[in-house]
Amino acid sequence: MGRSRYHVLGTQPHFLTCTVINWIPLFGKIEFTQIILDSLNFLQRQQRLTLYGYVIMENHLHLIASAASLSKEIGNFKSFTARCIIDLLEKNNSNYILNQLDLYKLKHKTKQQYQLWQEGFHPHLILDEEMFRQKLDYIHNNPVRRGYVDDPAHWRYSSCRSYMGQIGLLQIELIDV
Question: Interior CA angle at 92 toward 87 and 98, to 5°?
Fold first, then answer.
């Protein structure tokens, strides 16, 4: 795993983004999205990550999360999910996508055949309740802005339903907004 240029201090919530290399739309396939959900669920069960909000789009995801070592946990998450997704792509002979992951791999990544995630995760410290609310609204309205749904609660791969008192796909730590 490469060195992170992001330094996250403390265990306060951060808004972060993980993007598939070259914005390749992998998460339209449920098998890949399930890997993301299972991995986030595992980190939560192991008490390695606290999740306050999320959305999984076709080629990126946004989280509001905290951890004792957020950079390390997100690095491990990205490494593990990349390995699982690449293994599944190889098993299914998904050569077109694998060729894309090879083509757009950064040149300095010589010890691996493919690169799934863009480097970094762009953490932004959540400074106050207003900023938390703004980031949560941004996350939940992402599918609406993309034209996928008319109502944010209709996007099943987000924490919006949880904030409406409904059952979501992942347990989240609700913040009163």
Answer: 65
